[in-house]
Amino acid sequence: MTGSSRTSEGLSERRRKLLFRSWHRGIRETDLIMGRFADAHIGDLTETDLDEYEKLLEVPDRDLYAWVVGEYEPAEGFDTALFRKLRAFNNMSGA
Fold first, then answer.
1. Which run of H or E residues covers position 30?
2. Using an 8 Å Cβ cutoff, are 69 and 57 in contact?
3. Which of 28, 42, 54, 56 is at a distance of 20 to 30 A from 80, taking alpha carbons?
């Protein structure tokens, strides 16, 4: 079980892959951070957002978690509108 509450039906191949990768990061905390965000927003993201999201998926779990919870600021080039949306989403939903 992935934890995903969204079906990939109707999504492009790229979006389906990103949804899957969001729920299979490595540690459960980042699975929840990225997976819940993807469940809620993967269908709404622009192509530019998808490019940025793919970059975020490459960030090591520890770093991404620390950025999202505000332990420290994201590395240069990662403090984007999409990242701030991800952070706000997770802070609102209690991650």
1. helix 28-41
2. no
3. 28
Phi-psi region of 74 (alpha: psi -120 to 50; beta: other; left: phi over 0): beta
pLDDT in tens, 53-79: 999 999 999 999 999 999 999 999 999
Round to whole Å and give the CA distance between 71 and 67: 6
Predicted model pTM: 0.87
Alpha carbon separation from 58 to 5, 77, 94 (Å, rounded): 23, 13, 23
Tell me the residue ranges of DSSP E strands in 1-95. none
The CA distances from residue 7 to 28, 31, 63, 79, in Å, are: 20, 16, 28, 29
